[in-house]
């Protein structure tokens, strides 16, 4: 059962949901950028510079969060996103390397 912020536990992360979240090129770019950062790096959602409205940005980050790819925490009036690197690497070894190698 996802926690109160909508983060699934490691056992609840499903390949289909991960692949569905990664089907969108903008969401892949977010994961690619987070994967290139040192582990534990937290960034605001707006720092990715996605060319979409605030509502669409919220939708993209919700899809990534609910798929189990990122963890989000509220920091004042913004949200910080971190990659769930250990969970992703444990469940889907090599996936992050594939995403990092993808040409944007």
Defining traits:
104 residues, globular, 3-stranded antiparallel β-sheet, alpha+beta, 3 strands, Arc Repressor Mutant, subunit A
Report on this model:
The protein has helices at residues 15-22, 25-36, 54-67, 85-91, 95-101, and strands at residues 43-44, 70-75, 78-83. It has 104 residues and is an alpha+beta fold. It has one domain: Arc Repressor Mutant, subunit A (Orthogonal Bundle), CATH 1.10.10. Strands 1-3-2 form a three-stranded antiparallel sheet. α2 packs across α5 (95-101). The longest helix has 14 residues, at 54-67.
What structural category do the secondary elements indicate? alpha+beta
Rg for CA atoms: 13 Å
* Terminus-to-terminus distance: 34 Å
CATH architecture: Orthogonal Bundle
Residue share in β-strands = 5-15%
**How many domains in all?**
1
- From the spread of the alpha carbons, the general shape counts as globular
Helix content: 40-55%
So, the CATH homologous superfamily?
Answer: Winged helix-like DNA-binding domain superfamily/Winged helix DNA-binding domain
Order of H and E elements: HHEHEEHH
Strands ordered across the widest β-sheet: 1-3-2
Number of helices: 5
Number of strands: 3
Give unreliable regions as ranges. Answer: none
Mean pLDDT: 92
Name of the level-1 CATH class: Mainly Alpha
Question: Would you tell me which CATH topology applies?
Answer: Arc Repressor Mutant, subunit A
Main beta sheet strand tally, sense and closure: 3 strands, antiparallel
InterPro entries: ArsR-like_HTH (IPR011991), HTH_ArsR_DNA-bd_dom (IPR001845), HTH_MetalResp_TranReg (IPR051081), WH-like_DNA-bd_sf (IPR036388), WH_DNA-bd_sf (IPR036390)
Pfam families: HTH_20 (PF12840)
GO molecular function, one term: DNA binding
Protein name: Helix-turn-helix transcriptional regulator
